[in-house]
Amino acid sequence: MLRFWVALIGFVIGFAAGSGIIASIMEVPSRVLIVLVGITAGALLGILAFKLYVVGVFIYCGMMGAAVAALLPFKDNNDTLQTAQLVLMIIVFIVSGVLAVIFQRYVIIIISAVAGGMHAAGALSALVPELASEKMKAAAAVVLIILGIGIQMLTTRDRKKKARKKE
Fold first, then answer.
1. Residues 6+ apart with CB under 8 A from 157
2. pLDDT score of 15
3. Which of 90-128 are b and which e, b meaning 16 or more Cβ less than 10 Å from the residue's Cβ?
4. Helices 53-71 and 104-127, interaxial angle, to 10°?
5. Contact between 21 and 38 (Cβ < 8 Å)
6. CB–CB of 92/64 below 8 Å?
7. Is the CB of residue 108 less than 8 Å from the CB of residue 56?
8. Is 30 helix (H, G, I), strand (E, B) or coil?
9. What's the Cα-to-Cα distance from 5 to each of 8, 19, 49, 68, 95, rounded to whole Å?
């Protein structure tokens, strides 16, 4: 399942990069050309991410880490804070990606649980008025993150341990 998500994220990044590059290179590119170049670049990067799984793990966990960093509340909406948040997102992308390559199973579990818990807490706070305060939203996020890590640790297998048991 993770390989599917890795390929999908690779496609999305490739599509965005390809269509963005062609739109900036040509003065007035047609929409069809932008979409075709985007699909081609997306397909190439998606296949590359699928084939080079480690690169895909790096991209997936980097994107999830950056998404978590994007959720951090920056109170003011000025250029300096937006730049600081962007720099933080880039740093978290790189650190998450590198750690994921080194400790794949554990970092993937933690990153996906944190991202899922924070996003779910945000969605719950919109549905449940009692969770609308920042403290309640944070508490809900912590609970959901812990549950996510626990469930994933219990339901995924550690291939190294399984290989040792066979010996």
1. none
2. 94
3. eebbeebbebbeeebbebbbbbbbbbbbbebbeebbeee
4. 30
5. no
6. no
7. no
8. coil
9. 5, 21, 10, 17, 20
Model confidence pLDDT, tens digit, residues 45-99: 999 888 888 877 888 889 888 888 887 777 667 777 778 888 899 999 999 999 9
pTM beyond 0.85: no
Helix 104-127 × helix 134-155 angle, to 10°: 140
Distance CA 98, CA 108 (A): 11
Contact predicate 45/13, CB 8 Å = yes
Q: What DSSP line would sit under 88-139, residue for residue?
A: HHHHHHHHHHHHHHHSHHHHHHHHHHHHHHHHHHHHHHHH-GGG-SHHHHHH
Domain enclosing residue 122, as ranges: 2-166
- Token duo for residue 164: 């040792």
| Residues in the chain, total | 167
The set of residues, in sequence order, having a beta carbon less than 8 Å from that of 39 and lying 6+ positions away, is 15, 18
Q: What is the pLDDT of residues 115-127, one digit of tens each?
A: 899 889 989 988 9
- Split into its structural domains, the chain has a count of 1
HSE-up of residue 75 (Cα within 13 Å, Cβ side): 1
Tell me the one-letter amino acid at 73: P
